[in-house]
Write a structure and sequence with these properties.
Number of domains: 2
Number of helices: 6
Structural class: alpha/beta
Radius of gyration: 24 Å
Strand content: 5-15%
CATH class of the largest domain: Alpha Beta
Distance between the termini: 56 Å
Helix content: 25-40%
Order of helices and strands: HEHEHEHHH
Number of strands: 3
């Protein structure tokens, strides 16, 4: 997009005027504070997402302060009831979570599930990846399926929380 000299000068003058405003004249954040609930331990993916939200919200002058509460366990099912019961009706309370909470609610027979909260934004996507050791016998997806069909107990697997995406994929595979 090309700017005329006049447009450039007007933009520059407006930018300079905005930068010169004293701190007291700048707009107040939309929220004084936000309580961010993370149903997982500090340092994990959901916590990192919540901290990135804080940085972005502060940079955009949307929030003055953010308080964090981390409650981990059972694919989010330890923290979710706490969030629902303690933050109900609080317009400044947010929770970050993920797809693992769908299956974890079922696997853990949780009285409260992801159905008890209202999603407002999709921020990330969780890709599923299957990897094998480089020096192992299995080299292709077909070989993995064949090994699972031949003797599922002989194939060692690892993944995330009970009820999570990893768990559900392997449960479905056990029915091959």
């Amino acid at each position: 997009m090309a700017f005329s000299k006049r447009d450039f000068l007007q933009f520059s003058a407006a930018a300079a005027a905005g930068a010169a405003l004293p701190a007291w004249a700048q707009a107040k954040p939309m929220f004084d504070s936000i309580n961010m609930f993370v149903p997982a331990a500090p340092g994990g993916g959901w916590d990192g997402t919540a901290r990135a939200l804080e940085r972005s919200a502060k940079a955009a002058n949307l929030v003055g302060a953010m308080q964090f509460e981390n409650v981990g366990g059972a694919g989010g099912m330890v923290g979710l009831p706490r969030f629902v019961n303690q933050r109900k009706g609080q317009g400044n309370a947010l929770m970050v979570g993920g797809s693992v909470m769908v299956g974890a609610g079922l696997a853990n027979k949780s009285p409260l599930t992801i159905k008890d909260v209202t999603p407002i934004a999709r921020l990330t996507e969780e890709a599923g990846v299957i990897v094998v050791p480089a020096g192992g016998k299995i080299k292709t997806f077909k070989e993995l399926v064949d090994a699972m069909r031949a003797n599922p107990k002989a194939v060692s697997v690892a993944g995330g929380s009970a009820g999570g995406t990893d768990h559900l994929i392997w449960a479905a595979w056990s029915r091959l």
